[in-house]
Amino acid sequence: MAKNTSKKPIRKSSTKRKKTTQLSTLKSFFRAAFKWGCLLALVASVPFSIWVWWLNGQVVSRFEGQKWQVPSEVYSAPIILKSGAPWKKADLERLLEETGYRFGRNSQKVGWAARSRTKLSAHLRSYVDHLGFHESQRRIFSFYRGVLQINALNGDAIDEARIEPQRIGFLYGGNTESRQILTYDQIPQPLLDILVAVEDKDFYHHWGISLTGIARALVVNLAHGARRQGGSTLTQQLVKNMYLSSERTYTRKLTEVIMSLLLEFHYSKQDIITAYMNEVYLAQVGNSALHGFAAASQHFFGRPLNELNIDEFALLVGMVKGPSLYNPQRSPERAKTRRNVVLTVLNHQGRLSQGDYQSLIKQPIRLADKKRERTVYGDYLDLVAMQLSRDFDENTLASENLKIYTGVDIRAQRAASQAMQRQVANLERGDRHLLGLQGAMVVTDRVSGQVRAIVGSSDQYYTGFNRALGAVRPIGSLVKPPLYLSALATGRYTWWTKVEDERLRFKVGSDIWAPENYDRRVHGEVHLYEAMAKSYNLATISLANQIGFDRVGDALRQLGVKRPFTMHPAMALGALELSPFEVSRLYQPIASQGQSSELGVVLAVMDQNNRLIKRFNRQTHVPFTDAVLAVTLDGMTKTPEIGTARAAKAALPNLTFAAKTGTTNQQKDSWYIGITGDYSTTVWLGDDDNVPLSITGSSGAQKVWIDFTSHVNSTSLPSRLPSGAGRFQVLNDSFEKAADRCDDKVSLAFVLGTEPKKSTSCFWPF
To answer: Residue 435 burial (CB < 10 Å; 0-12/13-18/19+)?
Structure first.
C-alpha cells in the first residue's frame, strides 16, 4: 500500500513536467513565428509600400496632368441666313434638321424648331468662336416668292440670323480617339442621376470600392462557375479605363482596388464623376474609339448632350454595360431592350413616374443621319491639316483638343459633293467609255477668298487621294481670261477692240507649232469679248503675240501662279499645268475684283477654354487695279450669253454670272469656272490615266457646276462696278456709245478713259 502510494505522485509530476515542456515549446514556436512573421511582414511591407507609393504617383500625375489625349476639333463657318436671300421653306427645314434642331409644337427651348404651312420658327443655339460669344436667338422665318424674311418674336425685321458652326471632324495625327470634354457644370443632372442609379447607386457614400458589391458578385460568380457579375463601382470603372489594361488577374484586381481607394482619397466625387463622363468608352467608329457621353451624343443623335431626352440619356447609359453589344446603329432592337431595362430601374427606384415610364419605353430610337459625317468633309480636312502643319506639330493637333474654325460652308460642301457624284454618274451612264471618270471641285467665297467647299473625288466616300490638290493637269482655255486681262491692263485694248482670228505658225525650237480653233475654222476679225466668250484659239494667240508672251506669263504669276513654268506660245492656249486648287487661286483676284488674292482655309485656332491661340489673316496684293479686274470679270459674263456656257444660262436664266469653259488637247480634261455673287467655283473632270474623253468643258464640267449652283440658292453678280470702271452700250460696228434705240449694240465694261468718246443716237431723218 505504501509502495503504491509513493509512486503516484511521481507519475503525476512527470506528466505535469512533460506538459509544461510541451507548452513551453509551443510558446517558443509561436513566439518565434510571431517574431519572424513580424519580421517578414516588415520586410514585405517595404516593397508593398513602395508599390502603393508608385501607384499613388500614377494616380495623381495622370489625373492632375493631361488626362486625355484629345484630337483637335474642326468646325465649319456659321451658317448666315440673310433677309432677302433666295430660300425655299423646304431647304431651310432640311438645314435645321441636318444641324440637329428638332421640330415640335413650338420653338421655346433652345435647339427646337416649329413649322406652319408658310413659316418656320427656331430657337437658335448660342456659340463661342474666334469672334466672341454669340447669344441664342429665337427667330421667325417666312418665305415670299422664294425670298427669305427674318423677324424677331415682336415682329421687328432682322437682317440676318446665324446657325452655330458645326463640327465637321477631327485632326487625329497618330491618335484614334474621339472625345468632347465636359466640365461638371456642363453635365446634365438627369444624366448624372441615371448613371448613378444604374451603375453605382452607392457612389456618393463609398470610398471607391463596395464590399457588398464585391461579395455579391463573388457569390453569383461562384454559383455559376464563371464570371457573370462585376462588383465594380464607377470609381473602379474609371480606374480600369484610365490606368489599367483589360486583363483579368488577381494582381490587376488588387491594383484596381488600391488605385480606386487612392483616387477617392485625393479627389472629390465631382472630379471623379466628371472624369468618368469624359473617359467612358461607348463605341468604335471606323478606326476611332468614341469616348465620353458628349461625343456619343453628337455621334448617335447629332445634338449637344444637354438637348437629349430622358430616353436618350437612358440609351447612352445602357450602352456602358456593353458598347458593342448595345450599339443602336448595329443592333437597334437589342439597344432598345437595354434602354428599357434602364428605364425600368429608374421606375422601380421612384425616379420615373409610371405614366412617364409607360410613355418612354414606347419611344422609338431616333438616330442622326450618318450621311452627314466625315466622308463629306474628308477632302476639306486634308486642306485644314496642310495649312496647320506650318504652324502646329502633329502631336499638338492630335492631343491638345484645339478648336479649329474654318470657312467651310456645310451647305456648299454637301451640294458640291452631291453634284459631282450625280453628274459623273449621269455621264458614265450615257457613255460606257467614261466609266472611271474622276473629278475635283473647289468653291471659294467670291469676295473673301475663303474656301467654302472642296471635293477631291467623284466617289461617294472619301478615298484618300485629293485630286483638288493633287491632280495637276493642263488648264486649257481657262488661261484665256488672265491673258485678256493682261491686254486690258495695257490701256491699249478694250473688250470692243477687234483682233484677227487667223492661222499663225510659231517656231518652237526646231518644231513648227500651228494652233487651230476647236471647230477647225477661222472667223476673221472679231471683238475681244467675242473671241473670249466663244473661246477662239486663233484670235487669242494673235492677241498674245501682239502684247507679248512674256507679258502673259507675268500676268499669270501676278495673279497667283506659284508653280514654276517657262512661257512659250502654247502656254497662251492652256499648256500650263495646275491643280484645281491652284486654278481657284488664279481666278480669285478676278472674281473678287481685287478684294482678295489668297485662298483661306483656317480662320482661327482656340484652346479648349475658348482662348484664341492664332488668327489667320491673309494679305491681299494684286498688281492690277480693281477697275481692270472688274472689267475682266464683266467680260466673262458674255460666255454664258453668247459663248460656250450658254447651257448654264439656259438652266439658270435669272442668274447673272461669269463663266469660262476649258478643254485640253484630245479632250483629256474638262474644265469650268463659274462665278456668281456668292461663289467662285472651279470644276475639273478627267481620267486618272490621262486618256482622251468624249466630253468637253461645256458637255462635262459645266453640268456639275449647273447642278451645284441650282442647289445653293446663288445670287447674281452685283451690277455696280468699282471706282475707275464703267459700263456702256456700244455699237458693234462702230466704236461709239449707243443710245437705247440703237439695234446692233452691246453692253461692255471699260476702264474709265478707254471707253468711246463719241456717241450716236441712231436717229436718221431719211
So the answer is: exposed
Which residue type sits at 94?
A: R
In this prediction, residue 236 carries a pLDDT of 80
Q: Which of 199, 307, 582, 755 is catalytic?
A: 199
- pTM greater than the 0.70 cutoff: yes
C-alpha to C-alpha distances, 504 to 528, 538, 656, nearest whole angstrom: 17, 7, 35
pLDDT at 523 over 50: yes
Q: Read off the DSSP letter of residue 390.
A: T
Q: Is 477 a catalytic residue?
A: yes
Nearest alpha carbon to residue 550 among 529, 572, 535: 572
**Nearest-angstrom CA–CA distance, 498 and 484:** 12
Residue 749 confidence (pLDDT):
97
Domain ranges of the chain: 77-168, 177-362, 416-711, 725-760
CA dihedral sign of residues 429, 433, 436, 437? negative
- For the chain, how far is it from start to end, CA to CA, in angstroms? 184
Q: Which of 477, 596, 597, 670 is catalytic?
A: 477
226 Cβ neighbours under 8 A, 6+ residues apart: none
Is residue 585 over pLDDT 50? Answer: yes
| Residue burial 329-338, b: 16+ Cβ < 10 Å; e: rest | eeeeeebbeb
Residue range 77-168 in CATH 3.30.2060.10: yes
Phi/psi of residue 96, nearest 5 degrees: -60, -40
Fold for 177-362, please state it: Penicillin binding protein transpeptidase fold (1.10.3810)
- Report the DSSP pairing between strands 132-134 and 127-129: antiparallel
Task: Note if 596 is an active site residue.
Answer: no
> What totals of helices (H) and strands (E) does the chain contain, helices first?
24, 33
DSSP 580-640: HHHHHHHHHHHHTTTS--S-B-EEEEE-TT--EEEE-------SS-HHHHHHHHHHHTHHH
pLDDT digit string (tens) for 43-88? 555 565 675 665 565 656 666 654 555 678 899 999 999 999 989 9
Task: pLDDT band for 555, please (50, 70, 90 cuts).
Answer: very high
Domain 416-711 matching CATH 2.60.40.290: the answer reads no
